[in-house]
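step: validate -> pass
step: tokenize input -> pass
step: predict -> running
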Amino acid sequence: MDKPTHDAHRHIGRLPSYGFYGGPPISPDTTARATVKEFFADLDAERTERALVLPNYGVPDPDVAFELNKLALDAAQADDRVRCGLWVSPKASDSARNDKALGLAVEEGVVALKTSFLLGGSVDDPDSAEELHKVFTTAAEHDLVVHVHTSPGAASDVDQIGKLVERYGADARIHLVHLGGGMSGHLKLIGGRFFDWIERGLKVYTDTSWAIGFAPAWLCQEIERRGIGHDRVLFATDTPWGDHAGEYARLAAATDDPELIDALFRGNFEALYGA
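step: predict -> pass
step: emit ->
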């Protein structure tokens, strides 16, 4: 049986059906949980001792993810083994929604802000500049971690997201979700950029959810070879878009160093999100 773990990135809330890519309406988030009770039942079944929970998102209706901020906050305030992140948007059209969400940054249990360009906006888009600045400066002011989705190509590519690390990483802690999100992202991050940022003193972190099989083992080898980064990588499932069993098996097989294993699965979560 898997050992108890801390999950640094999972979601709560069910999304409405939507016709992705021009297809019929579908609901692919089959393990999404709509209630705090269901959410905690999953944690217990997985033996997940601590978790960071974020609103589920992915459909192009801005109110959906923003309204789930309350559910994520309810989960965090129901039990101190859970912390939460709040959904915020890079789009100027969501400015008022962002202001409302950022007003919750001082609430008990809030430790992160989550944003993504999957639903619009981009790092260099003038339309996104003010909202991004608002998000990152709020995070620095309140000592919150900014979670940013990464995936290959377009606005979520590491080439683009890396500009946020350069721009804000000296002052705000930035969690690059999905280790770059695919082959090109893995090669760019593990091949140098992740470690270069750490050496320069930038506050950058990542998790291995969605990672291609070779990447966690290579990442652990590079951590050992370079002697840095052991405190910057976290276990995460991205449930319901990932699964605990698969993510656990992949990362557990990446190294046989017991100290590094403990850091990846437990210690780094406690250091970043609170013991």
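step: describe -> The longest strand covers residues 5-12.
step: cleanup -> pass
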